[in-house]
Amino acid sequence: MDLDDVWRTIDTQRGSLADLLDDLSPAEWETPSLCTAWRVRDVAAHLTQAQMGLRDVIVPALRAGGSFDRMIRDSALRVGPLPDAEYGRRIRAMVGSRRRAPFVSPLEPLTDVLVHGQDIAIPLGRTRAVPPAAAAASATRVWQLSFPFRARRRLAGLELRATDSDLVLGDGAPVEGTSGDLLLLLTGRTAAVGRLSGEGAQRLAAAVGRRDDPMRRTP
Question: Which residues form the Mycothiol-dependent maleylpyruvate isomerase metal-binding domain (predicted)?
Answer without folding.
Answer: 13-100
